[in-house]
Amino acid sequence: MDLLELARAELLRSNADRKHPFRLLYLSTAGEYPETRTVVKRKATPDFVITFFTDSRSPKVSQIRANPKVSVLFYHPKKKLQIRLYGEAHLIDEGHGDFNRYLQSVKESPSLKDYTTIQAPGDPLSAGPEASVLFGDDIHFIAIEIKPEKLDVLLLGRDSHTRNLYQQTDGRWHQQSLVP
Ligand SMILES: Cc1cc2nc3c(=O)[nH]c(=O)nc-3n(C[C@H](O)[C@H](O)[C@H](O)COP(=O)(O)O)c2cc1C
């Protein structure tokens, strides 16, 4: 079983299939504690580069600035396929070649509002009995690209499980089988 090909095929499928479980990913960064949160995967390339969008003021962005090493978890419940991806996160902000295209796609979508809260994500809501999230005109958008260094792929089977570690050197993935 070529787990690398299976992982690649499912990730690429999820680019087009809106119901695919890999539409969501679970991103871990190093903070005061290990921090994990759900985000929407916007793009996966055949070489496992993963892109997602976020608010440039969010804690995950400052955590990535302090330490770009991150891990990403995908799980496909029907196929019982887990992908743990380890890599380096790169901030795609103004000045980067892809930024304007990503920003434009957000401007044309209902999710634009998500990047326009007056207070930053995670801030305590300003006091008051009817405290609610307020929106302004400024767009605090940033894209984040994760370049993979290591992949740990696990496939659960009825009789046996298969787990392989893939590490990239000189553009080639080297496989090491692991005890599941
Ligand atoms: C289904 C789902 C999808 C989400 N998608 C995103 C997303 O694409 N980008 C994002 O920044 N936060 C997304 N969030 C919110 C994050 O999980 C998180 O609460 C927020 O980004 C703040 O994270 P931080 O404080 O660790 O930076 C999503 C949450 C859920 C439950």
What does this structure look like?
By secondary structure, the protein is an alpha+beta fold. The chain has a single domain, classed as Roll (Pnp Oxidase, Chain A), CATH 2.30.110.10. Helix content is 17%, strand content 41%. It is built from 3 helices and 8 strands; from the N terminus they run H-E-E-E-H-E-E-H-E-E-E. Strands 1-2-3-6-5-4 form a 6-stranded antiparallel beta barrel. A hairpin with a 6-residue loop joins strand 6 and strand 7. The longest helix is centred in the N-terminal third of the chain and has 14 residues. The protein is elongated. The chain starts with a helix and ends with a strand. 23% of the residues are buried. The model has no long low-confidence stretch (mean pLDDT 95). Bound molecules: flavin mononucleotide. The site of flavin mononucleotide (FMN) has 15 residues, from strand 2, strand 3 and helix 2.
What is the helix/strand order?
HEEEHEEHEEE
Q: Tell me the helix content.
A: 10-25%
Q: What's the rounded overall pLDDT mean?
A: 95
Structural class by helix and strand composition: alpha+beta
Runs in which pLDDT lies below 50 for 5 or more consecutive residues are none
CATH-scheme architecture: Roll
The fourth-level CATH homologous superfamily is Electron Transport, Fmn-binding Protein, Chain A
Cα shape:
elongated
The side-by-side strand order for the widest beta sheet comes to 1-2-3-6-5-4
